[in-house]
Every structure is written in C-alpha cells, then in structure tokens.
Amino acid sequence: MGDRARVVVSVTASVDGRVTVGRDRLLLSEEAGKLWHSLWPEGFMTMNGARTALLEELYAPTAILEGSGTFVIADTGPLELPEATTSYDDFLPDDVVNDPRHRKWFTVVDSRGRVLWTEKGGGGIDLLVLTSRATPTAYLAYLQRENIPYLVAGEDHVDLELALRRMRERLGVTCVVSEAGGGLNGALLREDLVDELHLILFPAAIGGAGVPTVFDGPELVPGALPTKLRLVSSSTTADGVVSLRYEVARSARYAVAG
C-alpha cells in the first residue's frame, strides 16, 4: 500500500452482485431508488449500521469515493462554464480545507468535468473533485468560482493511485471508502488498489445482461488470475441479509498461467 490511502470498497448488492436495478437506471432517480430500497428486508438497516460502525472503529475514514456517472443527468445539454483558467494546479481553498467543522471529504472522480454541483456538502462533509490534465480548464475555473476543492492527478484521465497518494500527502487522508458503482470499483480492482471489500447482499436476484455489478470494467488480461480474497468475517440476519468482510490477498493478486 505504501504511502497511499487505504481503499475499502463498501457496497450493497443483490445476491447476483447487481448494484442497481437496470443498466441506465440511476439510484438517485426516484423510480429506481424507490424500487431498490423496497428490496431491503428489515434486517438490512441493522447490518448496514454495523458495517458503518466497524469501518469507523477500524479506520476512521476521512473520504468517501464516488464516480461522476452517479450524478450525471442525461440530456441536459452542454454545461455553461466560465472563462477557462490557464492553470492545472490543485485548488485547495483554506476556508474549506482548514474549516474546524470539516470531518470528511465526499470525493468524486470527474476527469471530463461532467457535473455542475447544486450541493457542495454539509454537516462537516465537503466536496472534493479528482481531475486530470485532460479536464477542461473552463470546468476547473467553474470549480474555483464555486469554491469547490480539487486535486489534479494524471494526464489523459485520473490516475487513481496518484490521486490516493496526493489525498494522503496534501489532505492527510489515510483511508478512503469507495461507495462507487462497478466502473470505478472495477478500475480500482484492476489497478490493484483495493485493500478490503465490505459487501452486504440482500435476498433478491435482479439479473440482466449489462446491469452494473460490484466490479465492472476491463476483463482480465491473458495470464492474469482473479484477485484472491481472504474472508475476515461474515454474519447473516434471519431475513436473509448477508454481510461479508474480505481482505485482498495481495501476494496472490496476479500470476502467470503455467
């Protein structure tokens, strides 16, 4: 793990690993969100609360990680942005970073600059955007205008490992909890950046080709083996909710087929 922040993937899924009810049905939408939550038995909330408490006890995480796709609303047209900035320096305004009320970063990977934010946090949680040198400079200017902190990590896309190192170096973040969808979690997996998986499964099967799962993204390259996990703990409720905690067996991460 070195000097980067620890990454814990914390996900809720159906028993077949789906993290939403349809390929293009964002859980932030009223219809999909209502259906998704209706699938949770009574025991889910108890199990979810226990997971949150365990993460706090183990690591006191100071950053939550999400992908920008979670917040992109289709067919909104081009973003209206201010005049471009000429700098690709980090933007970490002191009144946000050193606010005594600050507790945690809500961190979003958005190299393409796709989201105009109507909410920037609250209750000690502040928005942090991860960008790259491919992010439109007009979008960076928009973030500056809105006083939204951002880090620049990577050239043509966000370099996740570099971003995790810079979050630790510049903001003191030692643990990141990814509550993202399959695309971002899959990228973290392929780059060998996942340290733990905390998975809650509820008793429903969704199915459907292409429906997002816990880990999506590129397939394994020839000669590579799946990431091996070591079970740390498990528990179940009487109404069928299962909570699993795994550590990544990093020594067995990749192996060449013989």
UniProtKB/TrEMBL annotation:
Any single GO BP term: riboflavin biosynthetic process
UniProt keyword Protein biosynthesis, yes or no: no
InterPro entries assigned: DHFR-like_dom_sf, RibDG_C, Riboflavin_Biosynth_HTPR
All copies of domain Bacterial bifunctional deaminase-reductase C-terminal, residue ranges: 7-242
Record-level Gene Ontology MF annotations: 5-amino-6-(5-phosphoribosylamino)uracil reductase activity
One Pfam family cited in the UniProt record for this chain: RibD_C
Claim: Oxidoreductase is one of the keywords in the record: yes
Coiled coil: none
Pathway: Cofactor biosynthesis; riboflavin biosynthesis
Keywords linked to the UniProt accession: NADP, Oxidoreductase
PANTHER family with a match to the protein in the record: 2,5-DIAMINO-6-RIBOSYLAMINO-4(3H)-PYRIMIDINONE 5'-PHOSPHATE REDUCTASE, DIHYDROFOLATE REDUCTASE FAMILY PROTEIN (AFU_ORTHOLOGUE AFUA_8G06820)
Name of the protein described by the UniProt record: Riboflavin biosynthesis pyrimidine reductase
Record organism: Kribbella rubisoli
Classification of source organism: Bacteria, Bacillati, Actinomycetota, Actinomycetes, Propionibacteriales
